[in-house]
């Protein structure tokens, strides 16, 4: 398995390192507009190989990604704490379009994994310019928001986050939709939990929406939750586990890239599963889709 990274900034490097710790690839290639950055991160990961699963850790430019099974794209301008992700649209759209076209030329059989923000729009753009089938253009989407949702629910109710089935769907952004009606803990409705109160759920949902901005304001950018979330998707692909994850893919029903619970395996992402929603949740999802579409309409 060859996984290449276009972008070796904080998130790209953390995803590459986490993937190496999990033994997800036999070959990892780091690239970056600043070649010394890619080289430094590759050497830093390589130098720990005496105590991690073995892999060839390389650095180079986009031609060195040739023949990749998965290409992870984190390149682009990151946002500031008080900036909505969509502000990055004009800054990143031209860059991403060019990188995607070139990457796919070198790796026509790859799966593209998008992390660059605004994520939903960049995933839509990558789908449009790559010529790849929708299942092979995957955005991290609300997998990250879902991780935060489950982590905060676990903290609130004193349970193992890995036992919680709860999804955030829609936009990886201000209109994200934490689904409340279907939260279960190993199949048991959350409402059955001792100490359950709906106000606590509302607080958790509010926390999830501001989570990224909070971390950016404190430390300049989010790194570890994105890396853990990204590697959950990479692991499902590499191990062909057909895990259900709310990744962002082009959805022909909605006519745009949007995050919904989807089977993820070596084939990429699909089919999207029909998660039960209340009328209120469905309306919120429709609003989120409309928001993504409005941003996609601004693509150059
Ligand atoms: C975040 C960035 C990755 O949500 O969009 O932390």
Automatic annotation (TrEMBL):
Transmembrane segments: none annotated. It comes from the Bacteria. Pfam families: Ldh_1_C (PF02866), Ldh_1_N (PF00056). Residues 1-139 form the Lactate/malate dehydrogenase N-terminal domain. Keywords: NAD, Oxidoreductase. Residues 142-296 form the Lactate/malate dehydrogenase C-terminal domain. The active site is at 172 (proton acceptor). One of its GO terms (molecular function) is L-lactate dehydrogenase (NAD+) activity. InterPro entries: L-lactate/malate_DH (IPR001557), Lactate/malate_DH_C (IPR022383), Lactate/malate_DH_N (IPR001236), Lactate_DH/Glyco_Ohase_4_C (IPR015955), NAD(P)-bd_dom_sf (IPR036291). GO terms for biological process: lactate metabolic process. Substrate binds at residues 79, 85, 117, 148. Belongs to the LDH/MDH superfamily. LDH family. This is L-lactate dehydrogenase.
């Amino acid at each position: 398995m060859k996984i290449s990274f276009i972008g070796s900034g904080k998130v790209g490097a953390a995803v590459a390192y986490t993937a190496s710790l999990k033994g997800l690839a036999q070959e990892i290639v780091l690239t970056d507009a600043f070649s010394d950055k890619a080289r430094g991160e590759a050497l830093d990961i390589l130098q720990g190989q005496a105590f991690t699963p073995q892999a060839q850790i390389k650095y180079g430019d986009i031609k060195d990604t040739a023949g990749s099974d998965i290409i992870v794209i984190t390149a682009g301008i990151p946002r500031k704490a008080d900036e909505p992700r969509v502000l990055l649209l004009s800054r990143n759209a031209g860059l991403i379009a060019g990188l995607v076209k070139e990457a796919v030329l070198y790796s026509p059989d790859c799966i593209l994994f998008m992390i660059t923000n605004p994520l939903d729009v960049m995933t839509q753009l990558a789908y449009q310019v790559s010529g790849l089938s929708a299942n092979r253009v995957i955005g991290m989407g609300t997998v990250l928001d879902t991780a935060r949702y489950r982590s905060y629910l676990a903290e609130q109710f004193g349970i193992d986050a890995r036992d919680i089935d709860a999804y955030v769907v829609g936009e990886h952004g201000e209109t994200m939709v934490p689904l409340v009606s279907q939260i279960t803990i190993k199949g048991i409705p959350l409402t059955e939990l001792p100490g359950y109160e709906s106000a606590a759920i509302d607080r958790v949902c509010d926390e999830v929406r501001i989570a990224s901005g909070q971390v950016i304001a404190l430390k300049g950018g989010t790194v570890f939750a994105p890396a853990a979330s990204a590697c959950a998707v990479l692991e499902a692909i590499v191990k062909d586990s057909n895990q259900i994850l709310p990744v962002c893919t082009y959805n022909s029903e909605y006519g745009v890239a949007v995050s919904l619970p989807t089977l993820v395996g070596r084939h990429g992402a699909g089919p999207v599963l029909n998660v039960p929603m209340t009328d209120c949740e469905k309306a919120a999802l429709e609003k989120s889709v409309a928001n993504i579409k409005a941003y996609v309409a601004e693509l150059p």
